[in-house]
Predict the 3D structure of the following.
Amino acid sequence: MSTPERRLNILFLTPWYPTVENVYFGVFVREYAQAVQKFCKVVVLNIGVPDPELATAWSVREETDTRLTAGIPCYRAYFRDREPGSVSLPFRAAGVIQAVAAASKDHGPFDLVHAHVFVSGLFSLVTARGLGVPLVISEHFSIIRRKKLTPFQARLMRGVFRHADAVLPVSQTMQAAIEDYGVQASFRIVPNTVRTDLFYYDPQGASSTDKVRMLAVSSLVELKGIPVLLHALAKLPQPHRWQLDLVGDGPDRDHIKSLADELRLGTHVRFHGSLAKPEVAERIRNADLFVLPSLAETFSVATAEALCAGVPVLATRCGGPEEFVDPQCGMLVPPGDIDALTEGLKSMLGRLDTFDHEAISRTATAKFGHEAVGSTLNSLYHELTGF
């Protein structure tokens, strides 16, 4: 008779995590934690939170807002941040050590440290080595993909990843971008995860009107390619038989709205601003086509969410979607190419009724659901710890 696997105790260490001020900041890290929680115990340590009002160099507090913790114990290491350099690296390290001690006292001992993004690397290495446990690091940071690292950041990434027990890029594209900096590491690709309790196939969700309901979920910044999408939409044959719902906000909102008016798309493009996850999920379930016109991505969680909801996708080959969007669930076009996106829209609008929505959802859920990603991480944790 086989012995049941030990339920491991995992410490997540991350500079990105939802706050009262920004409930979306690092929300994908919390979703990783929720996936892991299906198989392991999880405690989150959010490091480097700036607080200009602190009287001391740092402060450690346990998060008590249940809307932010989502049932996962969370500690935050706050640092005084009145001006650049006001808290030196040794003080920050001391704050992290104190936060780890607080988390360990209440929830330890920990079996493994799972850090997120290389900028937490020195702290995560110190923590893992101090606890005598393995270290894995998930990498999501888009500046790596866009070749925006400073020389110092590149050296830091190379050093940290070389000493980690495993580095987990969210896509093959991200791994290639990391390796382009000369990084040598033990890589395992682990995709972002999707809340399939929200993003699921609803056979009653398809549009019942004579208009095709398209949806884009995106920050309104240049990198997301929304102007390219508007120009492509303006080239579709008349009369308009579609509506685009645009969810998201950002510094380019006014420019994009003006462009929609200039292209005479104003009545066909609806701006909804930022919405809570349940509202985003409802809009995705009610969409006929999800469109991702990004110029560059490391993965694209929104695209995976649409697929889990059984919605066909038209996406660009922007780094990530090309690894999971195929002819059975959608279509890919080059990024930044208005004509190619226009032809893609024509093609998808002409064959929306040929897609098997339930099969799309089933395949995506098997890749990105909490059960799938949590199981992958749990297996890796057991491999590294030997338990």
About this structure: The chain has two domains: 9-193+369-385, 212-367. The mean pLDDT is 92. The two ends are 17 Å apart (CA to CA). Residues 26 and 252 are 22 Å apart (CA to CA).
